[in-house]
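Sanity check. The docking grid for NAP depends on where the pocket ends up, so I'm generating a full predicted complex first rather than guessing from homology. Inputs follow.
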Amino acid sequence: MAKDNQEFEESLSENVPLAECTTFGIGGQARYFAEATSSEVLRGGVAWAKSQGLPLFVLGGGSNILVADDGFPGLVLRVRIRGLHSRIEGDKVTLTAGAGEDWDKVVAACISNNWAGFECLSGIPGSVGATPIQNVGAYGQEISETFVSLEALDLERAYLVTMTPDECEFGYRTSRFKTRERDRFIITSVTYRLTADGRPTIRYLDLQLYFKGGGIKSPALSDVREAVLAIRRSKAMVIDIGDPDSRSVGSFFVNPVVTREAFEEIKKRARSFIGSDKDIPSYSASSGRVKLSAAWLIERAGFERGYTYGNVGISQKHALAIINRGGGTAREVVELAGRIKLRVRSVFGVTLVPEPVFVGFDR
Ligand code: NAP
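Predicted complex below; grid placement will be based on this.
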């Protein structure tokens, strides 16, 4: 433990600007900041914060957080645990990745080996450790489908635990780590199962249309990755310093999933407000429920793409992304998000739930 503490204390800094650790580029400073390259250093950091009576925030890739303008008054521990290990048995590939690995680099490596399972999850910013937290998913694939287990530091018991899919309680873009036990575990590595030379998943219309347009009849895994990247880029959902519309946390709200009765009610309201219910995009979700497009609701409620609010606004390419237009503040983001939420609720009766984690807003 003494060595863990020593390594941790060597990497400790004070008053570190957090904006540059995030894709939003917004927020104040961390009172203390350190990088954990191993679970031992992580443990040292956790013990140190506890001994100082400081709050702790665990940072991954910074692609899904909004940091308060006043920053964070405690210790921010950035997880930098690296490592990729694979084992192949027949057509099954068991891959274990350190929580601090860049997610899209892992996806690219799998595609170059022709391993199926992650191709639709291309271009998602962030780190491996974040993927089980919100059961990351896109274009018809989600992490729970390839997830085998994870290793995490249990802050209640101060030791490493291994967790199975059932124990993670995955749901639509959620898990136990996002709901009932938000601050209990720090994920250190994740193990997935992929299929060597497997067939790509091409379920979503966006992908089917892409290949139809390009005349590709049997897309390879690498074609699907390229297609997903192109679709995401067209919505500014791939981080690109040359594209101001990508200075965001990606989708700011989760696509709502509602009961069938609630959907009927929404259609009724839409009819009286926008004069038609014909084009409400909807998809069936689990347990007979209905999944809606948050972007569609936001635009129809009056928040067009390109809408501005001080130094923040809505992306010109996707109504679901709130962007920092330069010099934006967390206060502006929260105000704009609040206005959107109120308006969507009053027009459609749907309560949008924000997707990012809010850091330092307790004060
Ligand atoms: P989109 O493609 O405009 O889709 C809007 C909604 O329609 C989503 O809820 C999507 O479901 C659903 N949908 C579309 N085609 C469908 C189909 N063929 N079958 C079933 N459901 C369908 O959404 P977007 O906002 O631009 O996002 C694109 C993709 O990225 C989506 O898959 C979205 O979930 C994903 N995404 C994930 C995260 C995350 O993991 N945190 C963040 C942002 C976006 P699904 O949501 O189930 O796909």
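Relevant for the grid: The chain has a mean pLDDT of 94.
Also worth noting: The radius of gyration is 21 Å.
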